């Protein structure tokens, strides 16, 4: 039985992950953490998440919480997730990170941590989105320079990073498939009077209400358009993907993986 530690267990995503662990065979909720000062500290993790009393207290000491767990799932902030990765590396525990918004320097730090432990770090844990990644890569290679590429993402108004980590990853995939340098051709929104250049990759952000997550990739040609679209209807899709990743990562060699590895899509 795989024991999973959930970081930020009292938050919306933490509770969703805990609920999904309950009905997933082969895993169990092994613990949960919250920040110092949280009113949930010391309470039973099952009572906090609504999954039934577990006899395990919510802690703010990650090192202690790791003692009785096999793998960690973290959907928090870049700074918090890096702390999780570093402490888990000290303890020799595998980690699954669904946090977005890492800077280039933080990504480099993650690569170094990956030399010590196996970890899955992915901007989107949804299985459907990761199939979208594969479809977009194939479409870009086939359609080539004759089709303009525009990426539009929409999320709830509380999301801080923009564009989303998923949209950034889509733009990287498109640029790589077309042999372009994203730093040179990425256009983030438009204003003014200017003709679209042939190799631009447009990335556009919407923030409104309680949208869970939507990503649209438009390949616009002369005479036809080809679109790939994904809409998340519940955070549960990310939670179930992260649990699948947690089951997969155990036993893998040290390194940084993503959901394409987990799903065998690479």
Question: What does this entry look like structurally?
Answer:
The chain is α/β, with parallel strands linked by helices and 266 residues long. It has two domains: 2-121 and 235-262, Rossmann fold; 127-232, Dihydrodipicolinate Reductase, domain 2 (2-Layer Sandwich). Helices cover 36% and strands 23% of the residues. It is built from ten helices and eleven strands. It has helices spanning 12-22, 45-49, 62-65, 78-91, 104-113, 127-143, 165-178, 182-185, 236-249, 259-262, and strands at residues 2-7, 27-33, 71-74, 94-97, 118-121, 148-155, 186-188, 201-207, 213-220, 225-232, 255-257. The chain has a six-stranded parallel sheet with strand order 2-1-3-4-5-11, sandwiched between helices. A five-stranded mixed sheet has the order 7-8-6-9-10. A hairpin with a 4-residue loop joins strand 9 and strand 10 (225-232). The longest helix has 17 residues, at 127-143. The chain starts with a strand and ends with a helix.
